[in-house]
What does this fold into?
Amino acid sequence: MANNIEVLITLPFSGEQISHLQQVSPRLNIQLVRARKPDEVALEQWRKVEVLYTSRAIPNEDWAPNLRWIQFHWAGIDHAVDFPLINKPEMIVTTLSGAVITQVAEYVLMMFLSWGHRLPDLLNHQRRGEWPKDRWDRFSPFELRDSTVGIVGYGSIGRQVARLINSFGAKVLATKRDVMHPNDYGYIQEGFGDPLGDYVHRLYPPTALKGMLKECDFVVVTIPLNQATKKIIGSGELAAMKSNAFIVDVSRGGVIDQDALITVLRERKIAGAALDVFPEEPLPDDSPLWKMNNVILTPHISGNSPWYDDRAIALFSENLRRYLAGQPLYNRFDPQLGY
It folds into this structure.
């Protein structure tokens, strides 16, 4: 009989969720130890682990000699890329990309509609108890129908945004590192995303980002943060946008040059922004973004969902099956690309 696989999970999954994982194979010996730091797990436990499911508890290289695969609880793992274990050539590292896309895409759609239909201004008038006499002009909507939406980074989240936007009759443009291969071969639930690239009207290479931005009425930023994407949207890119364009950032703080964004928002060179991520979190009290009336701020919650863990378990289960069968795993992290 084949050897058992020692699996350590450091997240507080429920008994039902652990049972779901256990049903993948009787070879799996699953242990749950709630831990945010590696020293919260006994060294004896680390020595046995072959598969680790974690958020941030990453052991020292010599603590876990049998560790072969780390599955992260997040789609973005820029917080972990400097750990030696992550960059070992023989280490398998996977993310949750594609598993938790629906709530982020709905957040993006909410922001597009909120801004297009003047919701912040409507709520301000409600709080003041005002019935504006110029309501027809003041609240004339900027409709998604017949608008052009630009997606910076056509990954799993961007593809789900495109699927939702398609039903509104918007034109979708997107940037992608490899425009010659529009298909998505990563993890995706059936009926979600855009596996064949059917919902995008045109793909642009990253070098043509400015050319795409100048065409867009709405923009959403969904690319991961790495050396190539840090401040990829700077003053030049923001200057290329239409004066009535609105931008939503659900990527990582640092992809947009925040100082440059504050400048164009203050000078009204773009219409507005919805920001869920920031270079420094929590956003400092003295940030001018707090007081700008053309900005919607949220505290990095676009990925939040009561079903997050269930969706994570579904992906981990599939990857466990693949691991046991010797098949390639979904969402394998590439240190060279940074995602």
Summary: The domain at 101-297 is CATH 3.40.50.720 (Rossmann fold).
